[in-house]
Every structure is written in C-alpha cells, then in structure tokens.
Write a structure and sequence with these properties.
Elements: H1 2-13, E1 29-31, E2 38-40, H2 41-48, E3 56-58, E4 65-67, H3 80-92, H4 95-101, E5 117-119, E6 124-126, H5 128-136, H6 138-141, E7 146-148, H7 149-153, E8 176-178, E9 183-185, H8 187-193, E10 199-201, H9 202-258, H10 264-306, H11 316-334, H12 341-351, E11 354-356, E12 365-367, E13 373-381, E14 386-393, E15 396-401, E16 408-412, E17 417-419, E18 432-435, E19 441-444, E20 450-454, E21 460-465, E22 474-477, E23 483-486, E24 489-495, E25 502-512, E26 514-517, E27 523-526, E28 534-538, E29 548-549, E30 555-560, E31 566-572, E32 577-586, E33 589-595, E34 608-614, E35 617-622, E36 625-632
Antiparallel strand pairs: 1-2, 3-4, 5-6, 5-7, 8-9, 8-10, 11-12, 13-36, 14-15, 15-16, 16-17, 18-19, 19-20, 20-21, 22-23, 23-24, 24-25, 26-27, 27-28, 28-29, 30-31, 31-32, 32-33, 34-35, 35-36
Helix pairs in contact: 9-10, 9-11, 9-12, 10-11, 10-12
C-alpha cells in the first residue's frame, strides 16, 4: 500500500517522473533519440519484443522511428536529468518522513490535519472535527455515505475517482477530457472555451479503455492457445515428413544392396542429398514454428504493457500511448494464423521419389522433384487496360483499370471475376491501388499530388497529399501498413498507415516507378520503363545496394514475397519473352538463386505488373492480360 501511495504522490506532484507505459516512477529512464520521449528501459525492452523483425523502434507516443543498433534497447541513451530527479525524489521521500508525508490530509477544511474518513457524497477527505460536523449537521449532510480511512487503506472500500479541481472554476472537478486541446476540463470550461470540441467523460473513457484491454487479454489467451495448438500440429507434420524422407532412404539402401560394393560412393552422395532435404524441410518447419512462437511472445509482451491495473486518471501522453498500444495489439490479433504451410511442406516431402537407374548403368539412381520451375496455371482476359494491380488474398488480385468508368475488378486464380463496389471508384479511373490489413483501400485516381484511403465500407477516410507533380502516383504498403508512394521521380515517400503524416522521404539514384518493402523495412525499387531498366534495394536512410541492370529494350519489374525473397520479371517485348528470376537479399544486394524457364505470354505493352500472392503463387499482368503463375522450388 505504501508503494502505491508513493507512486500516486509522484503522479500528482511530479508528472515528469511517471513512465507513460507502466504508469509508475521511472526505472532507468531511457530516451528515444528521434523524438526525445522517455520510458523505463524495462518497458522499452518489453515493447521491443513485439518488433524483433524490425531494425528500428516506433515511439508509442508519436510514432516517430528510432534506429536500433545490434544491442537494440541496451544501446539507447539514459536520461541523466530525469534519473537524477528520480534519485532526488526517492531521497526526499525516504524513511519515516515519507510515511508521514504520505498520510492523506483533510480536504474539507484548512486545518491540514490527518484525514480519518472519506465522504463519498462530497468526494472529500475529513479530519476528526469535520467528521463530527458531518454527523451532527443532519440538515446539510443527512444521507451522506462516509467510510473510514482504515478501510480505504486496507482496500476494503474503493473511493473511486478523485478529480483535480479546476484552476478557473475552483469548486468544479476537471472530470472531462477535451480531445481537440488534449487537456482535462470541468463542465463550465466546456461551455466557456471548448464549445464544439470533441469532449469525452473521463471516467467513461477510462472504463472503455479497461473494457477494451479486458477483451484484448481474452483474445490474447485465445490466440496463444490457437498458436500453441498449431505448433503441436507442426510437430505432427514433422513426423510424417521424416517418415517420407526415411522411405526415400530405405529405397536407396535397397537398391544399393542389389548393386555392388563399388557403388558405395554413389550411395553416400544420394544419402547426403536426402539428408539435405531433411534439413531443408526441418528448417522450413522451424521457420513456421519460430514465427508462431515470436507471435506468442509479441502478444504476451504487448498485453503486459497495456493490461495495467493503474489505467485510471491517465495523463495525455499516457492515454495516447496506451490507446496506440491497444490498436497495435488489436492488429496483431487480427493476423490470420497459418494452418496450411506445414502440411504443404509435408506434401512436398511425400512427392519426392527415388528413381532407380536402369540395368545398363553402374549407378543407383536419382531423387526426383528437385528442379525449381514456374508454370502459368491461368490466363484471364481483362475488361480494359491494366494500370495498377494489388494482392487481395493468397489466390486473388485486384486490377485497376486506366479507362474512366472501368473501376476495379477482383479476380481469382480460377478465372472468376467480380466488380469491387465498396468505393466511388467503381465507376472511376484507377491508376494504382493497395489494400491495408483491415481491408481499407489506398488508391491513386490519376492526380499527380493526391491519393485517397477508403474504409472497407466505402467511405473516404483520408486524402494523402504528395509533393511534386512529376507523374501519376503509384502506391504500395509496408508490413506495418505504411503507405509507400512513388511518382516517377528520384524519391520514395513513406506515410503512416492513416496517410496523415509523411514519415520518410528516401532519395533514389534512378527515377522510380514501383516500390515494395520487406519485413525489415528495406525498399525494393523498379525503374520499369527506363532504358536501361534497373532494380535497386535501399534502406530507410537512402543507402543503396548494387543495382540489377537489364539489357537494352528489356524492362524489369520486381515483387517481394512473404519470406523477403525478391522476384524480378525481365520483359522483352520485341522477342515476346519473359524470364523470371528469384533473388535472396544479401544486405542491400540481390543474390540470384534461381533463373526459371522462360514463359510464353502475349505482350501488347511495356507497362506490366508483378505481384507475389503467396510463397508459391505469382500474378503477372500486361495491358489486358492477367496470368497466375505457380512456383515450385
């Protein structure tokens, strides 16, 4: 109880000593260098657990980005001034004097005597004389509910919210919160200076936040249980994978027994291939398992930060921080759990076959099904000229048409089509588009300076104002729903998910038509129609890797998949040839992994679009043709 009183006292007398996340006095106050906001080091470490795949930290208060080193939070600078104030505070409030100072004084009179009771009706503390007056003057205080301080201190009785008195209207409680001005006010202040402002009842707002946190806590428990069950399922699939691999090994050994001892070297080579397959499948399964474990850790860390018993009478920064944390956690809980990838890996293992050599060769045989390839599984005729394309689901794309009145189509890998009618764009020109995680649509309609965000129900949420007027805007999104915009200039613009704030402008070496981002925040750019056409990787500071450069009259289009692999389509219209290559990221450079077989497609235009739908599905569009491409690695 004494610890809580000390924290409450610090909260009222020294607001700069309270961490906005844990709502307690700072412990190792640590500064985020980009914005200067300060938090406990332990709170930042908990928060960082939810973003281990990023090389930076987003401030919970203002969303500014702070770059992190290899040691992450441990290398952030401590606030010497705030930690010094904390030490002074503890020194001044130590020993018996602190205990005496923490005794609540009477607020009903000016005597400053120790309070012995609290009137719930008057919302004030009372000394023994005020208590006597309360009990005797029945004309004024009849029916008032009075509780003893002993019961309050022992937690037997809750006295509810104690509001600060208004400095202007002395007798009024500041029990309202003006969201426009970000201050606490009384009801008279609302009438005097805050008319037509967005006013929220403080108690109701805190109750809403508590209900939201309670709901998130339950959903966290449910999601954790679901992910743990999925991890168990992955281990079940691992057993089947090992069984399939062991079958391969048994077949090889049987063939070896029939052949001669001189084939021992051949046996070892094949065994090594199979073991490599096993390790490869194990690695893929471990990646899936690691993702689920990281999500559990992120969810648990986030709910620890927001599920705080002291979510009462919050200051402005604290309220903003916890609202943003709740929104971020809500987005995490909406992410779909991958229930299929482990089974897909098992299927790949079971498709491997041992092919014995014929009797004329002194050889055991080979392992089939190991050659990477791509194939077109569906070709769809579009209603008009494609200008933009975006992933809609694992097997579905959205096509934006360049002609007025054409709007947007949703097309699946079976060739099914339907019009997207949730926005006014159903009958307008659509130059490019991208869907956010909550189903909101960011779209470019032909303006050189504006893009728009629509809710899933079709109402306009925001207008994004873009610098310059070089060319039609192209849009994409990052893993945290950042809006990525290019306009065929030497810049990539990165906006926050709401579209209201320009967070970064990345300078590029070449004019950029299209840009995609990786999970770690790297930006993969394509100059597309330029000659020579190039693909380049940048970090948020504008540092660039070595560019891929196409031959003359060949144009490059890039797409990043869920595993941060980069596909690049080389389009040679003159020779009606398309070659797709798969690259792995090596820092800021692209290291070629596979060159797939050339594809035979109809090429009526140089303007194309390549999108990754899933690790084994691509979509490629050119003019009025759309192709769904299956990838086998």
């Amino acid at each position: 109880m004494a610890e809580k009183c000390e924290s409450d006292k610090a909260s009222s007398s020294s607001p700069n000593l309270i961490c906005p996340l844990c709502l307690d006095i700072f412990v190792e106050a640590t500064i985020l260098t980009s914005c200067g906001h300060t938090f406990c080091r332990r709170c930042l470490k908990k928060y960082d657990l939810t973003h281990q795949d990023l090389d930076h930290m987003v401030c919970p208060l203002c969303r500014e980005i702070t770059k992190l080193s290899a040691n992450r939070v441990d290398d952030l600078r401590l606030s010497v001034s705030i930690n010094g104030c904390v030490d002074d505070y503890h020194a001044k409030c130590g020993g018996m004097n602190a205990v005496l100072e923490m005794c609540q004084k009477c607020t009903a009179c000016k005597s400053l005597k120790d309070a012995v009771s609290f009137c719930l009706t008057c919302n004030c503390y009372m000394c023994d004389k005020c208590l006597h007056s309360h009990q005797q003057l029945t004309m004024f205080f009849d029916g008032h509910e009075i509780v003893s301080m002993d019961d309050v201190i022992e937690g037997k009785v809750s006295i509810g919210h104690l509001f600060e008195k208004c400095s202007i209207h002395k007798q009024e409680n500041k029990d309202m919160f003006c969201e426009d001005c970000k201050v606490h006010v009384c009801h008279k202040c609302v009438l005097d200076d805050h008319q037509n402002h967005k006013i929220k009842n403080q108690v109701k707002g805190e109750q809403e936040l508590r209900r939201k946190v309670t709901g998130l806590a339950q959903r966290c428990a449910d999601k954790k249980a679901e992910l743990e069950k999925n991890i168990q399922n992955i281990e079940i699939q691992r057993h089947d994978v090992h069984t399939a691999v062991q079958t391969l090994l048994d077949d090889v050994k049987q063939a070896y027994s029939i052949k001669a001892k001189e084939l021992e070297e051949n046996l070892r080579n094949l065994t090594d291939q199979i073991n490599a397959l096993k390790h490869s499948f194990d690695d893929d399964l471990d990646v899936l398992k690691s993702k689920d474990r990281q999500r559990i850790k992120s969810i648990c860390s986030s709910i620890t930060l927001v599920d705080n018993d002291r979510l009462g009478n919050l200051e402005t920064d604290t309220l903003s921080a916890h609202i943003l944390l709740c929104e971020e956690l809500d987005t995490m809980l909406k992410e779909v759990t991958d229930h299929t990838s482990a089974e897909a890996i098992k299927k790949k293992a079971q498709e491997k076959r041992f092919k014995p050599a014929d009797d004329t060769r002194l050889d055991l045989g080979s392992i089939s099904g190991s050659d990477p390839k791509i194939e077109v599984i569906q070709c769809v005729d579009l209603r008009g000229t494609m200008l933009g394309m975006a992933r809609y689901s694992h097997s579905t794309v959205a096509i934006g048409y360049g002609d007025y009145g054409q709007g947007i189509d949703i097309i699946d890998s079976n060739g099914g089509k339907q019009r997207y009618r949730n926005t006014p764009l159903s009958d307008m020109k659509c130059c490019d588009l991208v869907f956010q995680q909550d189903g909101s649509l960011c779209v470019s309609t032909g303006s050189y300076t504006e893009a728009y965000i629509y809710s899933p129900l079709g109402t306009r949420k925001a207008t994004i104002h873009v610098r310059g007027n070089r060319n039609i805007l192209k849009v994409n999104r990052g893993p945290t729903d950042e809006i990525i915009i290019t306009n065929y200039g030497k810049q990539v613009y990165i906006y926050d998910p709401s579209g209201s704030t320009l967070k970064h402008t990345v300078q590029t070496k070449h004019d950029t038509w299209q840009a995609s981002t990786t999970r770690t925040g790297l930006i993969v750019t394509s100059s597309c129609l330029d000659d020579p056409s190039v693909v380049t990787v940048y970090d948020r500071d504008g540092n660039a890797g070595e560019s891929l450069q196409a031959p003359e009259d060949v144009h490059l289009y890039a797409a990043v998949d869920e595993q941060d692999r980069v596909y690049v389509a080389s389009v040679d219209k003159k020779n009606s040839s398309i070659v797709i290559r798969l690259y792995d990221l090596d820092g800021l450079n692209l290291r070629e992994r596979v060159e797939f077989n050339a594809l035979d497609m109809t090429l009526d235009s140089y303007w194309c679009y390549l999108v990754s739908l899933s690790p084994d599905m691509l979509a490629f569009a050119c003019d009025d043709k759309l192709y769904f491409i299956k990838v086998s690695l």
